[in-house]
């Protein structure tokens, strides 16, 4: 049931309006925000309150609605569409976030909750987050730092950088460079078409790691003591490594397989047009 | 298997051999596992190609959606023109398999429609099926195209119907994405033609097909969100 708990209606005017309001909230609820254009910045604190600062409200009114599962923020304009507003929010650190913007960057800083972020045209930065963390941008880059849990990042046209992440990581990209640094994940799956992939991290025992691109180099920085069954494939490229590698048999075709250490993890790297490099971390 | 027999397989399926040659070929096929396998594969290609001809509506969609998103690939041939051309499969086995891959790409989006009507001399993908596993690998690739082609066509149709709800950024990025993926598919296809026994290339082609399907699904989800 939809409960309208507050309407900070701003009367129609030609001048942009701003609002700055703070209200109590159940941190177990999910925060939902839809924006047409303009940036969204979310910071966190240890209070069960949300502070909303919104600028550039040209028409309609700023609306806060609450359901049994979510708090919804937005600007309800005359034509029942959303407006172009810049938001700076401060929310409980554990609160789940569901943020969408058609045109504008989205930044989430310091959250410990679940994050779902979508931008049609804009960059996304997520620092923190756990549980289920998803980010999609059609045209923009994604940076995720200190993220844990089930992580899924997707950019159609832009670079993706992940740093200090753990859990399960899944990355889909078409045109951009993918970099993963200081990763301690049990599962990593990167699927790219046009762009390099860099992986720097440890391979967990029984972990699964798959790095695939069509046109780009793949560089892996892993500890010398890593244990993994390694499968590599290149159509037009070379493999180089500073590991001591023993091939069980002469490489067949364009694939090569070998084992590092106890072979407990599975590591796959494939590129159609590019080199594969394995370096000691 | 030798060239004497393989050269006749396609004509055999088209009913163009004399009675004597037909009898000789059938006797040979009974005793030659490789030729029997090749004939089965070729029969599958011809059957599928015939089925493909019957799926015109799904494949009529792409030129329209290409126009919607502002892309008019120079190689696209109108289907009605293709329908007027005689339906004829008198190709050698390598040529037939190459054509099958071309058909598969058409089914996956239509960008390579021109390949279907290209002169034989211009057909880039000539496959050496004398390589071990070549036939199986190529047929597996065709199966992949059969598996994903209809879904891709359906999504294209959905996007065409809902194109008014796609914002300009989404349309632009979608066009770029599809161009990149189609280029990758073409490169994988050409590589597979040069190295038909490569399981890596077959898997890679499959991966690119899945990628294209996922991209279209994502675009369809965007339509749902914005509508």
Task: Explain what this protein looks like in three dimensions.
The complex is a heterodimer of chains A (281) and B (227). By secondary structure, chain A is mainly β. Helix content of chain A is 0%, strand content 64%. Chain A is built from no helices and 26 strands. Chain A has strands at 3-8, 17-24, 30-37, 40-45, 49-57, 61-66, 70-76, 86-92, 96-103, 106-111, 115-121, 124-128, 132-139, 142-145, 150-157, 160-163, 166-175, 178-191, 197-201, 208-215, 218-222, 228-236, 239-241, 255-260, 265-273, 276-280. Chain A is elongated. With 227 residues, chain B is an all-alpha fold. Chain B has one domain. Chain B is 74% helix and 0% strand. The A-B interface holds A 100, 102-103, 118, 120-121, 136, 138-139, 154, 156-157, 172, 174-175, 191, 193-194, 212, 214-215, 233, 235, 253-255, 270, 272-273 and B 167, 169-170, 172-174, 176-177, 180-181, 184, 187-188, 191, 195, 197-201, 204, 207-208, 211, 214-215, 218, 222, 225.
